[in-house]
């Protein structure tokens, strides 16, 4: 490779690298593969999507792009579909919290004294959903929740309850998709919390106990503050990616229906883009989503810096 | 690496109990309730997977029974799947895509991390930020320009098209960056004084010592690429050139109620990942936990 020429410069002696006066090509050569990939496939498309959000276009290379200014944005903001999708996005995210943060946190603290060989068996088992492909998870749950023959509905029937059209009933479909998304995460989150909980310096807990603190006080005043970095990390992940994670399930299982009840913002982008080929709308909605989530992300990162109690 | 994780996990649990026992009777969940909680969680996690495998082994006349084990296990469903869709071809495609993607992740990540750790150059902070923040851009936002670019490059319906955009990933760069940062600089300095070039330092000194991180990144990248659905959904046209996730989705759309074959296809698509997990479960769990969620 061609970096040898550039590398020759600093090999003279113990001379510190930063002192090199001239532009050093070597780092750029090493960076090139990753940097070019990320710029070409993430940042340039982002800029292009921003431009496209001001045009009307149907993605056919032969048809012209027509500049429409802010019309796409203005149109979207008045569209009930968009409002419903944004509301659903919020529901997806809030609905995921119990399964990605609250229950795992409670289970991790509750089971912290678990020892012995079973510990590893549980670890191994509860992690499995994380590595199962989303498409497989979708298909398996579609079978388990099938209205006529699915095991869950057969069980409901046996218990004398009504069968539920988990994916057909607009009242249940969204909750069902949240459940499947959460099913993939719950074990992983639990393990993450367990590891964080176990790494808390035991002398803190001991000291508090000597002072007569109850178990609840120890959890509230010691464990939760020391777990706050993990809590914030998982909360941030849930907020930023929760709606994205459910995309596959929406696409495979409901197509956004019934009655658009499961369409979130990311599915709407897909629907506008590759369903109705309205590139302008899709790009404009994408820009709105990107701006929103970026603001949330920076807010979360600041919160993480400020609120975390670090164990030093 | 694996052992350090276990040490962390066990030390917390081990040190706690003794001292306080004398203090007073405290409300503390008994072993039984703890086990019950974990069994419930494990059941929820594993039962759907178990049911997938069991259903795939049930004959057509038995598929609607609720028996937890088929009365006469048969592989007929698998035969049906293999005769209906080019499953083996798609599994091979997926193996190629996931394998090459994982290798590229590791390579590009290694180079970029080396550049960022070894040199302080103008814009290095900016470049780091650019790479680190790329996970903020949702793929659905850039999908149209990506699709247009891929079609302009003639990448539609090709395996290369599935690989090229994923040749580098922010998490790979960051993971290796942090691993390399903790690498003792004295060793590198010593090698440099012996006249070793960067290329050799990277391959002969750093890489062998980062084996654990590289392996865990490779596993993670392989599994993520294997399970990837969205980008193949955009690019794939013919079933012969697609990956197994797309094949599954197509099969479901066509034969949505043939539950036995559908479960057999799902099982086939999951087997390689489950096999990796069985062999390397500690490393797999750890590599997911180290990288966060992506």
UniProtKB/TrEMBL annotation, chain A:
Task: List membrane-spanning regions.
Answer: 28-46, 91-110, 122-144, 172-193, 224-247, 279-301
Subcellular location as annotated: Cell membrane
Q: Tell me one GO biological process term.
A: transmembrane transport
Write down the superkingdom of origin: Bacteria
**UniProt-listed InterPro entries:** ABC_transporter_permease (IPR051393), MetI-like (IPR000515), MetI-like_sf (IPR035906)
Q: Name the Pfam families for this protein.
A: BPD_transp_1
For this record, the Gene Ontology CC terms, alphabetical, are: plasma membrane
**Residues of the ABC transmembrane type-1 domain:** 86-300
Which keywords label this protein? Cell membrane, Membrane, Transmembrane, Transmembrane helix, Transport
Membrane topology value: Multi-pass membrane protein
Protein's recorded name: Sugar ABC transporter permease
> Which organism encodes this protein?
Microvirga alba
Automatic annotation (TrEMBL), chain B:
Against InterPro entries, the record matches this protein to:
MetI-like (IPR000515), MetI-like_sf (IPR035906)
Q: How does it sit in the membrane?
A: Multi-pass membrane protein
Known Gene3D superfamilies for this protein? MetI-like
Sorted keywords for this record are: Cell membrane, Membrane, Transmembrane, Transmembrane helix, Transport
Instruction: Supply one GO BP term.
Output: transmembrane transport
SUPFAM superfamilies xrefs: MetI-like (SSF161098)
Q: Where are the transmembrane segments?
A: 31-53, 96-117, 126-147, 159-180, 201-226, 258-280
Please state every residue range assigned to the domain named ABC transmembrane type-1: 91-280
Taken from the UniProt entry, a GO cellular component term is: plasma membrane
Q: Where in the cell is it found?
A: Cell membrane
- What family is it from? Belongs to the binding-protein-dependent transport system permease family.
Record's protein name: Carbohydrate ABC transporter permease
Source organism: Microvirga alba
